[in-house]
């Protein structure tokens, strides 16, 4: 099996300093970033295959792209609740947060409980992860019932006043994706958006109006 040192060496060979420098324009924390593109990471992940051990070693490296790669090669069946809590507390950039939720965390049996837990926590990227998980589950969990998503509504409303950019965008993302699942959830998401408007904060109005605009097109 390929070890983490070999993989990191491959990442360093593919490093693009210009890409790394440009990441900041998209609000990405470029600390410890090499500038390797996501398509290149996915191509490398296909070559590596799934490995929980390799994923943990890549994560420990602290390298931005290595952590995203870890989320792709990890085996969701071996991911523990403890691992999820440990990783989420080390999120320091929205793209790592979203990719880990999208590639890995939403495939674990802990996804719904973590979404509910993390959305209540004060740390910015932990809270974002809670709402990112809601959005990812709305897209990927085809067998889920409407009630599985309706349980998120109180938290969406509660945190719709959080004006931190990476949180408010994730709250909006969750609201929109849930509303896109089916006509019943669209109706309920639109009703929730109107309730959020009544909160009368700038952030709440942006979240609600953006969701209403998108869901009303469907």
Per CATH, the class of the largest domain reads Mainly Alpha
Strand content: under 5%
Helix and strand composition category? mainly alpha
Q: Which CATH architecture of the largest domain is right? A: Alpha Horseshoe
Largest sheet: none
- State the low-pLDDT regions, or none: none
Distance between the termini: 47 Å
Work out the count of structural domains: 2
Q: What do we call the CATH homologous superfamily of the largest domain?
A: Leucine-rich Repeat Variant
Q: Helix fraction?
A: 55-70%
Number of strands: 0
Give me the strand/helix succession: HHHHHHHHHHHHHH
Explained architecture:
This protein has helices at residues 4-13, 17-22, 38-48, 52-60, 64-73, 81-88, 94-103, 111-118, 124-140, 146-150, 153-158, 165-179, 183-197, 202-215. With 218 residues, it is mainly alpha-helical. The protein folds into two domains: 1-74, no CATH class; 91-218, Leucine-rich Repeat Variant (Alpha Horseshoe). Helix 5 (64-73) runs parallel beside helix 7 (94-103) and helix 8 (111-118) packs antiparallel against helix 9. It is globular, with a radius of gyration of 18 Å.
Annotation keywords:
single chain; mainly alpha; Leucine-rich Repeat Variant; 0% strand
